[in-house]
Amino acid sequence: MKMSRRGFLKALAQVVIGGSVAAGGGYGYSRQVEPGWLTVERVQVPVKALRPALEGFKIVHMSDLHLHPYIQLEFVQKAVAMANALQPDLVVFTGDYVLERADSIFELAPALAALNPRFGIFTVLGNHDLWTDAEVVRAGLQQAGLPVLINEGLTLSVGNEPLYLAGLDDGWSGYPDLRAALDKLPAGAPAILLAHEPDLADDAALDGRVSLQLSGHTHGGQVRLPGMGAPILPRLGKKYDQGLHRVGDMYVYTTRGVGLIGPPIRFNCPPEITEITLIGA
């Protein structure tokens, strides 16, 4: 009998964390401390033929906020303040804004709109957004002035040099179309792809036009055991579960995310804001 991801995390919390590590307060730590230990991960990503105007371009990437019931607005506001302090050129979100109720987006999106990057904020949807109500989540984001890229892209002009930003529909429950997303890609421009599920990177790498894919979805597993990593990971998040990976001639970065699903624990896997800096290869 197969166990669900949530069921496994619950069992792991009770047996591994609550048992063998509990002598040191492991369960209390994994529930009360680490979920609030929001970290900034700084990563440099080499891009072939990167033009001088784009050298050092800074992208703040966040994903999987999952507002309510475990994540409250105050924690999101903390993440926004931390992101603004990084003075990003661009901010992107790679899905899963809500967990149980789609209308939570109307509380969340205005808080995200307080971000102030030089070249804007852009978003894609994740599986939980589709499972609740994709149209409601999309409407809430757009109402707050946050564009949603679904199988489409646009060109940003950075010092008169093009940077292409594309977004895919959710890979689990939507209809991702990479060809449509890259349809307007200018010749020679680096392409950044937003895709909720990281394992879609295999298809993006085969295309050959994407320099970097940014993804979330996995939460890093929420629980990572020494020498083992994450014992369980979701569909389309099993290969590139966290951090930077090279896939063919491109890179994919998977964030551990800001929020979590139930049971609301993290162990050896703190929540994350990511600062991506583009550098010449």
Would you mind describing this structure in some detail?
The chain has helices at residues 5-20, 26-33, 73-85, 105-112, 127-143, 178-181, 201-207, and strands at 39-47, 58-62, 90-94, 121-124, 152-158, 161-167, 191-194, 212-215, 243-247, 250-254, 272-280. With 281 residues, it is α/β, with parallel strands linked by helices. Strand 6, helix 6 (178-181) and strand 7 (191-194) form a beta-alpha-beta unit. Helix 4 crosses helix 5. The radius of gyration is 18 Å and the shape is globular. The protein starts with a helix and ends with a strand.
Task: Name a few traits of the molecule.
281 residues; alpha/beta; Purple Acid Phosphatase, chain A, domain 2; 6-stranded mixed sheet; 5-stranded mixed sheet; 11 strands
Q: What is the highest CATH level, the class?
A: Alpha Beta
The radius of gyration is 18 Å
Average pLDDT confidence is 93
Span between N and C termini?
Answer: 47 Å
Q: Based on helices, strands and strand pairing, what is the structural class?
A: alpha/beta
Strand content: 15-25%
CATH topology: Purple Acid Phosphatase, chain A, domain 2
